[in-house]
Write a sequence for this structure.
């Protein structure tokens, strides 16, 4: 009998008291026993994010004092024990079947280094959701076709082998482009698969807070600078909570 794939779920969280409870409720409801552990990385929060997460007995809460998403990702990797590390954001609503897709894809493809997919948005108006679906169809598909790698930071799973070869996450990156950096570096150690039906519902608060078009332009711009120059160029970002 094949050994069961151990999946560690890591959820970076900075001042996410408004969202973390619903996120964890969806995880516990829809993971169907396929997760070996659930780790919430309290990334220097000043609210009660950690206290809310600690109310769930199935969840391990760890603290990372260095604020920044890559630092939180790195802490999760260092604390996790799984063969595969899955990362979601604290404002996501994990759908049923998400974990089983990870299990199936990594079990059938031993060269798979990273699996990712797009977002859907549960709190945006329909016209904005339509615009974003157009982005995934018209722009993201060709980008993935030519690069052969792509990842979305709140919806990906990566093998421990690839992470070890990569020596973890690049903590010198502030925010924009860090998911593309993950995918690009992981592609050196295996196949990076972007499944367009591997969808994670998330909040559209950043899109609402700084504008849909501006946000899309920033992500596209930093995707290409990461691909071409192996470095994103946008340094400043706004914490939208």
């Amino acid at each position: 009998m094949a050994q069961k794939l151990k999946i560690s779920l890591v959820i970076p969280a900075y001042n996410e008291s408004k969202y973390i409870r619903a996120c964890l409720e969806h995880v516990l409801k829809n993971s169907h026993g396929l997760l070996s552990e659930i780790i919430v990385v309290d990334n220097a929060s000043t609210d009660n994010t950690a206290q809310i997460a600690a109310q769930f007995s199935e969840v391990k809460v760890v603290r990372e004092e260095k604020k920044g998403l890559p630092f939180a990702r790195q802490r999760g990797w260092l604390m996790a024990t799984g063969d595969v590390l899955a990362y979601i954001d604290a404002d996501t609503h994990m759908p049923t079947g998400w974990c089983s897709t990870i299990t199936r894809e990594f079990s059938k493809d031993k060269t798979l280094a990273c699996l990712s997919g797009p977002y859907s948005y549960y709190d945006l108006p329909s016209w904005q959701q339509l615009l974003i679906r157009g982005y995934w169809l018209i722009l993201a598909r060709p980008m993935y076709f030519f690069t052969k790698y792509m990842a979305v930071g709140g919806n990906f799973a990566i093998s421990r082998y690839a992470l070890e070869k990569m020596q973890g996450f690049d903590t010198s990156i502030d925010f924009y482009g860090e998911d593309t950096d993950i995918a690009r570096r992981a592609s050196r150690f295996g196949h990076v698969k972007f499944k367009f039906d591997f969808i994670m519902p998330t909040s559209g608060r950043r899109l609402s807070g700084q504008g849909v078009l501006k946000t899309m332009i920033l992500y596209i711009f930093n995707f290409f600078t990461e691909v071409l120059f192996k470095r994103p160029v946008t340094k400043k970002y706004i914490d939208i909570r």
The mean pLDDT is 96. The radius of gyration is 17 Å.
